[in-house]
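User: Round two. Same drill as before: sequence, then structure, for each protein.

Assistant: Same drill it is. First protein:
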Amino acid sequence: MSQAPYSNDSDDAESLLEFERLESTLPPALKRSASSLFEAIQSQNPSGHSSPNRENHFNSSWINTGNPTPRTPSQHAVNALLSKLSHSENGRESSPIPVPRPKFNEDIVKPAMNTKQSSTGVLWVTERATEYGFDAENQTDWANLGQGAPEHGDTVPGSFIRPKTIPVPDYSKEYAPTAGIKKLREAVANYYNETYRQNKLSKYTYKNVCIVPGGRAGLTRIASIISDCYLSFFLPDYTAYAEMLSLFKNFSPIPVPLDEADNYEMHLEMIKNELTRGVSALLTSNPRNPTGRCMTPLHLKQLHDLCREKCLLIMDEFYSHYYYDDGCTGSSISSAQFVDDINQDPVLILNGLTKAFRLPGWRICWILGPEEYISALSSAGSFLDGGSNAPFQFTAVDFLEPLKVRAEMKALQIHFKMKRDYIIGRLSKMGFTFTEKNIPNSTFYLWLNLSHLPGKLSNCLGFFHECLHEKVIVVPGFFFLINPQNLSRLEDVIWYNYVRLSYGPEFNSLVLGMDGIERILHRFGCLPYDPNQ
């Protein structure tokens, strides 16, 4: 397929400057990524397509030395590189160059302030998109496939109508207990007992439930009450874990990278190895963010049997109702099904209204666990966050009637599976390959492999850069390299070749996003068809 001619030298220089400015806004640990991209483009094979061997394609000296490779290529190489990064590469028209503002003004004295704090992945991509004209409150012409939130309107057929107003009686104007109001705690306990524990002797009570103001607040409370232990977590996973795990010094976080070739499955042998080396706490999302996969019930049971009485399991289950393996019947998967004794098994389960009930702005979530853990989490809330919004808690009680939840989840699963199938269908036609192993069976995320694409598109930062010009937001894969305190050298698993796409937004945003990606691939001459025919 023919490609448009490159722009003139001044436009080329501007485009390179634009890309370097984009790189300059990255968290320090990720700035080296663009060096890899520059080298990858220069070492591109004669066919013009990226090498299928990722290690060779991104072979940079910093992987061994820890230092970025100096950019001192020949003038010919510089000119070629400028052309490949130009504004009008393969037909893209010029667009304004963003000038990212410094995160901190170094001319202003800031006593005792930590100026090295980095943005999480979703916040970083939103900041960059804003510099390109994205407006979070008025985004009709943008496809935000980066935000980790589901559509929140009355747009899901069969779903209950979201409240437009909520009552605020006098008793809800008081501070709510830091463990949450008793009615909501009872409703959560009853829901889990009816849904997952009907055949179990041990039942949850309100004393096993702590209401928290959002998932991050719940994780922060948990981090504050564990001490003197090694905590393992598995990569890739939720980007906000990085800040939570690095903030507290009362435990040692240990990142455990999963195997890309094995579709990031968490094998029991790996868990055994972690327990053998003295790990006494495990944190994981199930279903997993960003891969969109979840453990089978048998695998989850075996995990619990292995860890029982040996290791605290911290199970982030916010996507447990986005579960498509059971025919979209409204069923879900949860560790609550495999807890033997709710006060003996050291298992903490996080969930809430954020994802399943599509009410992220309410910040009403919960933690289930043994009474002693819940008591400690309640105490932690008194000095960390002060507890959750009282009127929202009272309103949420009625949402949790088990049969109502089942009907709601069935509607949700049918709708989101339809959206998943749409983007997989569109991307398949564009040349992306999907198998049973990499098609998400849960969540609303797609972990998209770019390695077959040419040049800069095979690198998540280069792909992200081109997406911004098409008003599409994605999350570069290297943000899911959670390495708190930089305790481990994990450059070899940095996932340059992946981006995370969210099919959480409304359907029209998915159409805009797929159209934008199709235009990018068309300009680079790597579509298997001509969209104009």
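Second protein:
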Amino acid sequence: MNSKSGLFPNTTAFSEDNAGFVEALYEQFLRDPETVAPDWREKFRAFREGRTAEPVIPVRTGDIDRAVRKQAAVDRLIDQYRTHGHLSADNNPLRPASPSRDLDPARYGLDSTDMDTPFYLDVLHSDEKLPLRSILDTLRATYCRHVGVEYMHIMDSEIREWLRQSLEGSRAQGHFGPEQKRELLRLLTAAEGIEKYLHRKYVGQKRFSLEGAESLIPLLDELIQRCGAKGTREVVLGMAHRGRLNVLVNILGKKPELLFREFEGTEIPDGGSGDVKYHLGFSSDVESPGGPVHLTLAFNPSHLEIIDPVVEGSVRARQDRLPGDAEVAVVPVLIHGDAAFAGQGVVMETLNMAETRAYTTGGTIHIVINNQIGFTTSNPFDARSTLYCTDVANMIQAPVFHVNGDDPEAVLYITRLAVDYRMKFRRDVVIDLICYRRHGHNEADEPAVTQPLMYRFIRRHPPVRALYAERLAAMGIVSAEDAARMDNDYQEALAKGETVSRPLLGDAAGYIKTRWDRYRGVEWTAPTEAGPPVADLAAMAERMTALPDGFEAHARVEAIHTARRRMAAGELPADWGFAENLAYASLLWHGHNIRLTGQDVGRGTFFHRHAIVHDQRTGQAYAPLQHLKAGQGRFDIYDSLLSEEGVLGFEYGYSSSEPETLVIWEAQFGDFANNAQVVIDQFISSGETKWGRLSGLTLLLPHGYEGQGPEHSSARLERYLQLCAGNNMQVCVPTTPAQIFHLLRRQLLRPYRRPLIVLTPKSLLRHKLATSHLDELSGGGFRCLIGETDEHDPTRITRLVLCAGKVYYDLLETRRRENLDHIALIRIEQLYPFPREDFLAMLKRYPKAQELIWCQEEPENQGAWHQIKHRFLGVPDRSFNIGYAGPPMSASPAVGHFRQHIEQQKMLVERALVLPVNPTATME
């Protein structure tokens, strides 16, 4: 009977006549399974994988069946080495390797009589056969010495084969000449030397020593040099405090004398609060075989891994402004701790962003300083539920190299392989530097209290420099005297305060200044450009609603575009979506760049933006703002992944490296920024004060009480106002389309770079009163405070009601309905920096006003009240009866039922407009 393919006989009998055919067919299967008929292919696979006890071919007299079975056994053994050999690798300085029974040839029916028998090492890619003894030597050397490799989980066969050839072709070992070995010892001497010096001179001070992981210094040096040789011009590093001082001095070239002054407390920051020495960043330039490489170590708070997305955003900004192969030109390097890499969710968020359009940087080189202990006392079995601390990286199929930190040559070999992989495939790669921590969490800690056995071993264990010096002495490359001289020379250089890294190019202080000089020292009151003429706005509006011929937009989107064209013609008042998009168009029109990300930003969560339109027949996406005219600015808009912490960290990093792009992150609902609070607290609000880093990042946070419950009402305005000091950021609550138009333009056009927090509306996006005329967008600018129109007689006003946001329209409609012409409604559109001059000027318009009430929708202990009421005190030559109108204090941001919400709104409006002022009253 023929097989289904008709190409090969589907025989179940074995004889002398067809033995040669079956053997040839099996070897063909081993080379390329797809060329064999499906039925034979399945039989051979079952046979090779041991899924059947029955032979594929009945046994005959002779050796062919035994040879086939033996090759299948060898194949399974090889696969075990490649897949699980890392489990038996001798890559842990603190414990010997544990041989796995899965790597025992006897488990596969192989014995000593097979050792000299030739077998295929790689049946799919080579016709060469080797004795089993040689195959096992290659596999053990490659997968079970000082490097353990995880790569067989990668689905891309091209990547797997490249890694296999690279590893097995070199037996996972580098080849270093005598001079390279001496240089390696010199770097280890430096890594150990700075720690010894600080330990001796600054007894008991925290430095978060690198001791036990000294191989990190030659690793970074090799990484930078190899990247430079491949065309890299910038390397951006992010790391927490472990080993940071060592990296600053020995890699980035920070002068030791500057570090010593920081230890001694005599280095006072130039303005701002400053930060502890092991959080500070630095930048410098070093030479490489391919030319100069600019190194940047990002500033980092104690929140460990939060720097990860910030570095990625900074790298993406640098890549976006470079021509050519920017992913080679700028390379991100992230240095992690083992417990933090496994334990902190922002690591997963950052990894998840790695290959998305909005956040890719062409691959990150991750280095895990694996001390095998978390923080102070945590054991690995309490720190994670995975075998390795790096297992989270398996989600993006990154190769992981587990390397013994006590073998610096193995470390350098893996570093080279990691750099080559990143450059070839533009994907993330992980180096797990398995080492230990010689001291406790800090140098005053006593680790043996909780880890007696580990630290009994560590205290007897020689440092990596001593081990390597002995190794080189045994090879006759470096004598004991030479090694001692290296140490003495390094210590003398430190004592003199000399730079001890590779020679630097230019100023060793190297802080980034050039792109930011024009933005420093600028006040928030700096003027900005007025809006474009009406005719120009109409032309921009026409282009931002134009779609390609034959493009079929959704009927609702087409209706919106039609309405926007009428708005541009002056036939309809402008709504929020029109004004916001027109703000972007007016900036792009004149060559400015914009980056807008967040969940649903293309359409807009509340169906108002429609900056990205989808063809209803083909699904093709089109962004009209990217096609306004030739020579326009770049408009990057991406619907982000479902992340806040990672994404906001990325956008902060982008904005801190690119002052000339309007960078915007929009939360789906304003309170979703809760998930990124650490970015707001430790970077956005305080980055300038701590580190002198400016950022023009804009946050759009939908805010407004619509009866949608506690989690979809408040953007937690009070939190931002609590963080405000020293004009560190701006907090605005615009209430009209013209206001958002001018506010967005002001953020980029004014030479002032501070974060902007915008509480944007939901119901106001389509509110009948929240509209603007086109001439309000032309000319003029953002108004920090909006008073009453001239139709009100200022001399009749006795009560001033101040507010921010949507509640203004509730107050306005009630005042009109009740004819309360003795009340003026004042909108504070910029809550911080508070527009005091505008406020005092407004008060002068109402000489008879005696009552001043702040009205808000948020509970009394939330919203703006407690952060703004002091602004109403101390008015020159005036005294007011000041009161509050709003919900009572509450642990929840809003009530959870719509009827409650309606009643609450009625009560707060009544208290603001009708009831007597009572500063101590609260609504029950």
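The radius of gyration is 34 Å.

User: Perfect.
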